[in-house]
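Title: Comparing notes on inverse folding

I've been comparing how different people in this forum approach sequence design from structure. To keep things fair, I'm posting one structure and asking everyone to reply with a full sequence. Here's the target:
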C-alpha cells in the first residue's frame, strides 16, 4: 500500500509510520530518500528488498541536527568543523559506528555515513520521527536517482508505505560522501555539490578516491555498481561542441533512432530528438536536470527502440562538474566516443 503525502500536516503520520518499522520516501535537497528507522534492523533489511539493492552496500543515516550523530557514531573535532561549514546540506561524513546501529544498516561494516539534509520537509520529518533515518536514494537499484515524487512512484509504487511529495529536488545529484581519515584529513568517496575546493577551506588534506585497481574493494561500496543506467545505451561525445552537434546531426540523417541530451542553445536544431539540460554554461541546471533527462529517455518509444542516446562529455573539474562527470561516466558505462 502507498500513501502519497502532499500536505505538511500529514508529516507526523509519515513519521509514525517510519517509527513503527515502515518505509517512507521523503524529499531532500539532493534526491529523494527511501527511509527506515536506523535503529530497526528489520526495517533496514526491507529497504534493501524494496530497492533490489545488493546487501553489501551500506545506507546513509540522516539526522535533523549534526549533534544527533552522537547517539550512534563516534564524532570528532573535524566532524564538527565540517558540520559547522556544510550542514545542513549535501555532505555525508563517514564515522565509526556505535553499537546501537544494526549491521543491516551498515552492510556489516563498522562505519556509518551521517547526513543532515537542508530540505525543510526532510528536516521536519526526521525531527518528528525522533529516530535517525537510514535512507538510500529512493530508486530501484541501478536506475537514476529520483528528483521528483513522480520518479519515486514510477520505481517504488507498492513497495513502500508512504511517499512524501516535496516537489523537485534542488541539487539533483546525491550528496558528497567523505571519509574522515585523520584529525585534519578527508577522502572524498563520491563527489557532490560540496566540492573538494570547498572542503579544502575547512580541512587541510582533501583527497579523492581514484578508479579501482582490479580486485580492489572500494571504500564506498556503491561506487562499484553500474548506476543511473537508462534502458538504451548512452554515449559521451568528446570533442568541440560544433563537432558534437555535427556528429549527432549526421547520425540522425543516416536514420539512427537516437536522442540527444543537449543544451538549450542546441535544442531547436534537434526538435523532438532533444532533451535539454539547461543553458550551456549553467552547471547547476545540468546537475538539477540530469537524472530526469536520463529517465525521460526511457519513455521514448518502446523499450530498446532507441539505438543510442548521445550527450556531451562533461568537464571533469570545477564546482559541480566533478559530480556530473562521475554520474554520467557511470550511466554511459565508460563509453566515450571521440568526435
Ligand atoms: O544525497 C544523498 O546522499 C541521498 C539522499 C537520500 O540523502 N542518499 C543516497 O544514498 O544517495 P545511496 O545509498 O543511494 O548512496 C550512498 C552512497 C553509496 O555509494 C554507499 O556505498 C556509500 O554512500 N556509503 C554509505 N555508507 C557508507 C559507509 N559506511 N562507508 C562507505 N561508503 C558508504
Ligand atoms: Mg543511490
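Reply #1:
Here's my take.
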Amino acid at each position: 500500500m502507498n500513501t502519497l503525502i502532499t500536505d505538511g500536516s500529514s508529516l507526523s503520520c509519515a513519521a509514525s509510520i517510519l517509527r513503527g518499522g515502515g518505509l517512507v520516501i521523503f524529499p531532500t535537497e539532493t534526491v529523494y530518500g527511501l527511509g527506515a528507522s536506523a535503529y530497526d534492523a528489520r526495517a533496514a533489511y526491507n529497504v534493501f528488498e524494496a530497492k533490489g539493492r545488493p546487501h553489501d552496500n551500506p545506507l546513509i543515516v540522516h539526522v535533523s541536527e549534526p549533534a544527533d550523530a552522537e547517539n550512534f557514531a563516534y564524532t570528532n573535532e573535524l566532524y564538527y568543523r565540517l558540520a559547522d561549514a556544510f550542514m545542513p546540506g549535501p555532505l555525508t561524513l563517514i564515522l565509526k559506528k556505535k553499537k546501537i546501529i544494526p549491521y543491516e544498516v551498515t552492510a556489516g561494516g563498522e562505519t556509518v555515513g551521517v547526513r543532515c539534509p537542508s530540505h525543510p520537509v526532510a528536516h521536519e520529518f526526521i525531527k518528528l520521527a525522533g529516530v535517525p533515518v537510514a535512507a538510500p536514494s529512493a530508486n530501484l537499484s541501478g536506475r537514476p536517482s529520483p528528483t521528483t515524487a513522480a520518479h519515486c512512484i514510477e520505481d517504488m509504487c507498492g513497495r513502500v508505505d508512504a511517499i512524501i511529495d516535496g516537489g523537485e529536488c534542488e541539487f539533483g545529484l546525491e550528496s558528497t560522501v567523505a571519509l574522515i581519515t585523520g584529525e585534519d584529513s578527508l577522502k572524498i568517496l563520491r563527489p557532490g555539490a560540496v566540492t573538494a575546493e570547498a572542503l579544502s577551506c575547512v580541512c587541510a588534506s582533501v583527497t579523492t578516491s581514484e578508479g579501482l585497481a582490479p580486485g580492489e574493494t572500494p571504500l564506498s561500496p556503491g561506487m562499484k555498481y553500474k548506476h543511473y543506467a537508462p534502458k538504451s545505451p548512452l554515449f559521451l561525445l568528446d570533442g568541440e561542441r560544433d563537432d558534437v552537434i555535427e556528429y549527432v546531426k549526421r547520425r540522425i540523417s543516416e536514420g539512427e533512432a537516437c536522442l540527444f541530451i543537449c543544451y538549450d542553445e542546441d535544442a531547436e536544431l534537434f526538435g523532438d530528438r532533444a532533451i535539454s539540460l539547461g543553458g550551456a554554461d549553467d552547471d547547476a541546471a545540468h546537475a538539477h536536470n540530469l537524472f530526469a533527462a536520463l529517465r525521460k529517455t526511457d519513455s521514448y518509444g518502446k523499450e530498446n527502440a532507441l539505438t543510442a542516446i548521445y550527450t556531451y562529455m562533461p568537464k571533469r573539474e570545477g564546482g559541480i562538474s566533478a559530480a556530473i562527470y562521475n554520474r554520467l561516466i557511470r550511466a554511459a558505462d565508460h563509453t566515450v566516443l571521440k568526435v
